[in-house]
Task: inverse folding
């Protein structure tokens, strides 16, 4: 359920709806047959409540020691078992340590996206709500740092209009220590791209207009060596399409903030309404996914050449291959792409449970795993997967699992 372009309703509702989905799914389902793929393993089942958190819709990162880091949207210690999200570490032996539990005050709440890590072991991320200023009944959101000892420091507390509010994207960083992300708000309340300097100073690099430049940037940005940013908006673009909200764009922001629209989606065979993140290869090609459009109307995986030419690599929705991808892709050295879909695959009561897939360099798709909605989890496709050890994918499933709070899984590719 997406907020129409320019609408001022708080973005917190989007996250709460997703939490409602994963929790309701877990309650409706009885465990199904065990996962049949020998290459698949659950390496952690979230317990929720006062424990490690629940409903992880964030991706994972790793360090050289093999530890994984991520965030949960809800749960965690504090507030009588009604925590507001956590940042955690998963050690190679399977031990989970909650590094920080949000308390829904000025420290933030609802860490929708994942974290990034610097050379000193500090973690950086955003919360969709919390902070010192109220937006639509909730805090406007934050940019935070968590030190290796678990101490949290706020780098920025969003102020609402015309600044920004409710960031659902993760952060990107440059070599100078600046952070970049996207949020709601802006001059026309159509979304922003922001920069946070090392001293916490915020600069709005671009405020979307809900016109041809795009609107509703839910995903993160990536930074190239020249300091240009690349990202996608879910709506905007050609505002005669997709209910006159527009079907979204792929954009580039130069270091001076000037925007170039690289592709305007039509909602047809080229896809539309992208919610996730882009990646780039060494040749400058961009890769991403959309939630609608394609041959079956249920989303595509695409490649965008430096000259703006789009190639649809796969149209989702044929058989059990997956539907409506919300996240980004990962690329290996052989040119294969990997990702997840939150829907499609096997039945999970009123929903389908989601998939993990591979798209070969020739465009051939193979489903590597279909979630069952039992102890393996369900709804994996809100977050990007992570490729580790050359032959292993790790990721999060936002719902189901042994305790109904989602899982972290490992899949040998």
Result:
């Amino acid at each position: 359920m997406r907020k129409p372009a320019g609408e001022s309703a708080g973005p917190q509702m989007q996250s709460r709806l997703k939490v409602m989905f994963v929790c309701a799914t877990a309650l409706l389902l009885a465990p199904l047959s065990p996962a049949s793929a020998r290459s698949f393993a659950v390496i952690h089942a979230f317990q929720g409540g006062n424990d490690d958190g629940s409903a992880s819709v964030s991706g994972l990162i790793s360090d050289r020691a093999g530890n994984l880091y991520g965030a949960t949207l809800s749960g965690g210690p504090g507030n009588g078992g009604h925590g507001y999200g956590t940042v955690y570490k998963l050690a190679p032996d399977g031990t989970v340590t909650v590094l920080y539990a949000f308390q829904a005050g000025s420290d933030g709440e609802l860490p929708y996206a994942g974290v990034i890590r610097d050379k000193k072991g500090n973690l950086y991320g955003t919360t969709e709500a919390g902070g010192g200023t109220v937006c639509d009944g909730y805090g406007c959101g934050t940019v935070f740092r968590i030190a290796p000892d678990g101490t949290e420091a706020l780098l920025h507390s969003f102020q609402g209009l015309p600044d920004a509010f409710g960031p659902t994207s993760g952060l990107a960083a440059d070599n100078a220590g600046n952070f970049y992300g996207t949020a709601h708000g802006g001059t026309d309340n159509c979304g922003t791209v922001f920069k946070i300097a090392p001293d916490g100073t915020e600069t709005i690099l671009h405020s979307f207009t809900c016109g041809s430049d795009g609107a509703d940037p839910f995903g993160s940005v990536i930074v190239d060596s020249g300091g240009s940013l690349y990202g996608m908006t879910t709506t905007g673009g050609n505002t005669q399409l997709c209910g006159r909200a527009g079907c979204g764009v792929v954009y580039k922001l130069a270091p001076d903030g000037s925007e170039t629209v690289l592709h305007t989606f039509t909602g047809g065979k080229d896809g539309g309404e992208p919610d996730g993140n882009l990646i780039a290869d060494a040749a400058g090609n961009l890769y991403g996914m959309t939630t609608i459009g394609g041959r079956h109307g249920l989303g595509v995986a695409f490649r965008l050449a430096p000259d703006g030419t789009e190639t649809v690599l796969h149209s989702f929705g044929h058989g059990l291959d997956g539907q409506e991808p919300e996240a980004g892709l990962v690329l290996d050295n052989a040119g294969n792409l990997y990702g997840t879909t939150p829907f499609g695959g096997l039945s999970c009561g009123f929903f389908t449970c989601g998939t993990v897939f591979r798209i070969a360099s020739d465009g051939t798709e193979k489903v590597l795993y279909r979630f069952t909605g039992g102890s393996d989890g369900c709804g994996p496709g809100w977050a990007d997967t992570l490729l580790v050890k050359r032959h292993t994918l790790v990721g999060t499933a936002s719902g189901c699992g042994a305790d109904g709070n989602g899982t972290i899984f490992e899949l040998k590719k």
In short: The mean pLDDT is 88. The helical segments are 12-28. DSSP finds one helix and 32 strands in the chain. The longest strand covers residues 40-45.
